[in-house]
Amino acid sequence: MRSKFSTLIPLVVALCAAVGCDKKDNTIKIGQAVALTGDNSTWGQSEKNALDMEIAKINAKGGVMGKQIQLISYDTRADATEGVNVTKRLVSDGVCAIIGPGQSGVAIAMTSVTEPANVCFLATSATNPKVTVDDKTGQVRHTAFRTCFIDPFQGTVAAQFAAKNLKLKNAAIIYDVGSDYSSWLGKYFTTEFIKQGGKVCASEAFRSGELDFRAILGKIKGSNPDVLYIPTMQKEAALIMKQAADLGIKAIPMGGDGWASPDLITLGGKAVDGSYFVNITSLEDPDIQGFIKDYRAKFNNDPVMPNPVMAIDALDVIIDAITKTGGTDPAKLTNQIAQTKGLQTLSGVFTIDPANHNPLNKPAIIQEVKDGKFVYVTKFVTQ
């Protein structure tokens, strides 16, 4: 006859595996939910490279609290359903926290797993406010954090830069109605641009997967805009700018951090020259030059911004929480991360706002595409 104790052993072992508390395990398991294939893989692969490089350095120096960090990375393909599957696998693997994802829709879907499991994630470039705050209840999502700024901020930055710095008056907007990122950025830009005294003379929507934008660009051309705001990912933005140039539209193109991929230039060619976009960080940021040098030396190319830097920021936050709580219990780490204040991370001093789990005082970078390159223009703080 089995004793009560023998019956409980499998349960205890399973529970410890689920919360990373196995004392015999000499590793700290940190998950990564990242797009390694598909249209977002340019950022995802660079993000994984950066984390692998940084963790190797930490482990070579003895790890954290005498334990080696093990990064467990799974491919979300930038798909919400796959993001949920990946999160379930990571929780089952016993990770103490998750770095990523980079996409708002994926992050929001992941909360259906992280909230009941009480395992937190730190999104790298998921900028929609609904990632960390449930728009239906208005309550902060306990396990959702991010290291990047949010869409209302970058939409406001773009509108203020267009109106104040570029002195532009008439905006046309073309956005992806199937993307929360794109739709909401368009709305935030519109609100602020009008507030700044500008006029939105045209607003046209398309659906994800479309490649021919000439019909809606034809409508936009007739409104005579001087700025064309394109809050999409790099592929659609490049095609839109190329087709706009073919139609003779002279408006200055602007966009968000979704443009920050070499694919924008490869696909758009000369048509993207003279465009501006808001980014979370850039290669020229003086605070990250040591990281840039190390990344180039190891991988023989540049990191694709901003995800690698935001991922290392997330790693810094998790390690800080592990050190302060003295372990890897996911629930304790979640509570500690919400209290992060004045932590020096790769991109600068990092503080979490406990009311919404967003970083405080995060400046934006304005970049221009010039002669086939991304050029740093300025750091911009909303006014």
Please, could you describe this protein's structure?
By secondary structure, the protein is α/β, with parallel strands linked by helices. It has two domains: 4-149 and 286-350, Rossmann fold (3-Layer(aba) Sandwich), CATH 3.40.50.2300; 151-279 and 365-380, Rossmann fold (3-Layer(aba) Sandwich). The protein has helices at residues 4-19, 41-60, 80-93, 104-117, 151-165, 180-195, 214-221, 234-246, 262-268, 289-299, 307-325, 330-337; strands spanning 27-34, 68-75, 97-99, 121-123, 144-146, 170-176, 199-206, 227-229, 252-255, 276-279, 343-345, 348-350, 352-353, 358-359, 364-370, 373-380. The radius of gyration is 22 Å and the shape is globular. It starts with a helix and ends with a strand. The relative contact order is 0.13. The model is unreliable at 1-23 (pLDDT under 50).
Layout of secondary structure:
Blueprint: H1 4-19, E1 27-34, H2 41-60, E2 68-75, H3 80-93, E3 97-99, H4 104-117, E4 121-123, E5 144-146, H5 151-165, E6 170-176, H6 180-195, E7 199-206, H7 214-221, E8 227-229, H8 234-246, E9 252-255, H9 262-268, E10 276-279, H10 289-299, H11 307-325, H12 330-337, E11 343-345, E12 348-350, E13 352-353, E14 358-359, E15 364-370, E16 373-380
Parallel strand pairs: 1-2, 1-3, 3-4, 4-5, 6-7, 6-8, 8-9, 9-10
Antiparallel strand pairs: 10-15, 11-12, 13-14, 15-16
Helix pairs in contact: 2-11, 3-4, 5-6, 8-9, 11-12
